[in-house]
Amino acid sequence: MTTTPYDPDAFPPFAVTVDIVVLTVAEELSVLVVERGADPFAGELALPGGFVLPEESIQDAAQRELAEETGIDAATLPDVHLEQLATFGSVARDPRMRVVSVAYVALSPTQPAPAAGTDAAAAHWIPVSEALEHGLAFDHDEILTVGVDRARSKLEYTTLATVLAGTDFTLGELQRIYEVTWGFEVERANFRRKVLATPGFVEPTGERRTGRGGGAPAAVYRAGPGTVLTPPLMRTA
Amino acid sequence: MTTTPYDPDAFPPFAVTVDIVVLTVAEELSVLVVERGADPFAGELALPGGFVLPEESIQDAAQRELAEETGIDAATLPDVHLEQLATFGSVARDPRMRVVSVAYVALSPTQPAPAAGTDAAAAHWIPVSEALEHGLAFDHDEILTVGVDRARSKLEYTTLATVLAGTDFTLGELQRIYEVTWGFEVERANFRRKVLATPGFVEPTGERRTGRGGGAPAAVYRAGPGTVLTPPLMRTA
DNA sequence: CCAATAGTGTCTATCAGACAGTATCGA
DNA sequence: TCGATACTGTCTGATAGACACTATTGG
What we know:
The structure is a homodimer. By secondary structure, chain A is of the alpha+beta class. The first copy, chain A, is built from six helices and ten strands, in the order E-E-E-E-H-E-E-E-H-H-H-E-H-H-E-E.
């Protein structure tokens, strides 16, 4: 806002979009990508996203695109964490015109592949490493990198790993969320101690679940009311 | 980016601005505000900012506005830290038209009042508490709050306090940066130990400086090459 | 039995909080 | 001398890393 009055017809013409880095933990840390149908970058992979409409806030646009284009089951949509990441506004990031993109990060519980036949038929999960090796359209490589960095650091000082773990999880499963996201192993006993000693991180459900490949049945937990981890769960490696 | 091709004439009309939360530590934590000359909110206080031009990136726009409208001495401008904060895009945040604002935070060394007679004659420092009590134009109260939160938490896990302290500083002065920014006192001996034990935080200049109100002369330090504090300097209170 | 996972206990190094004590300046 | 700041040292409680040990499952 300058002190200069401005004429609605004189403002520089910008388009505003949202792009969403939707992350989940499968075998590897994975991101949801869509195949572009039109030029530029037709046929290439890109992050899901779209225009912000004149009558919706940017946050609303991100939520709408997450629902529409993402193919995430409507039942689990409320469990998805969505937060603003950063805004990307280089002059030539879109070859056609001036487009400013407000990027969001979404963390989703482990998900099956989006159902075919929906709006999001072109959407599918691929490992982040694969996405970065292959390369995404526009500046989406950079957006993805920033998004993954944000997710990794948020696991340190928030309880958001529970979002990636889903509604019910064992401590072993929660530990795998950290290990897959961070890319290195975590000492089991110390991890348990820290998680259980942090008030509001997890709550026992009282149930026990038996693993797939042998091993003692594990206690099942759900997310607690806490959101921050003070002191944080450091990633030393 | 959707897979739908889009017509340059059909995109929704948005204006994109930058608004900057420029913070410094004086007697209190203070923010640079400008007096608005035109409606809406004519005569009220607002954060400095302005339009992003068609041929500049958003980051460039923020830097330009910081230099132009801010009244910060050109010699100290390179020492100012500028980082993107968040983007604010509610539908009605500007009563005239749809405006999306990309907010930035700037941390400036302690500064004298901006020189009168410049473009930034309307700019001046006021304590953050005063700004929030009095109220700022548009949604700038919210932007300021988010900016101050960002600054406070960044002091925890980065060495950015050295930016607020200026080129040369004593450990007592650096401690005051923390105390004023966080709003509570820090234990002296522990603060010294932590700062000196963190590699790359500060470097001794070899000089000593004598304070204003008596006391032994203090060693003078400058910022070191380090940027992160691991583990962080926690604010327990 | 073996492999694999779950769960517990313990030793130790590190570090932050708290606080005492000495030193050096200006007024 | 007094007040104020600079600087050092030390004790202690909390905690994370490392690792050993037991328990319970499937195959």
